[in-house]
Amino acid sequence: MAAHEYLMGRAAETEGHILEALRLSPRDIVAHVWMHYVGAAKMLLGADAEAAGWLRRSIEANRNFSLAHFWLASALGLLGALDEARTAAKAGLALDPDFTIRRVRSTRRGNHPKVLAGRARLCEGLRMAGVPEG
Prior knowledge:
The chain is mainly α. It has helices at 14-24, 31-44, 48-61, 66-79, 82-95, 101-106, 113-129. The model has no long low-confidence stretch (mean pLDDT 89).
């Protein structure tokens, strides 16, 4: 449930629940996914610098998780760190060369207005980072 709170417009609650999950299971094999969820929630809240921190942690936990690279690219793009954003986007594309902004836009996970606005921000950051439109 905690992982998907941000998809229901309750992004502010996500971090606390994920921190508790990581405390209870510090060696969880999908900890990188949990960290990605916090990064995604932080982006929905407009806390892009915090999002970048969580997304970097996700990548450190599993460098092969392409979504964390793309979300980091977006957060960095929105922060104006365009060189770093492009580097993160290239790392993501090396793992998933078929990834496009169109694919993100076509994903219908969550229909809360905050989630829809967050998806638009995510796509703008991806655009800034040089991710293909598709």
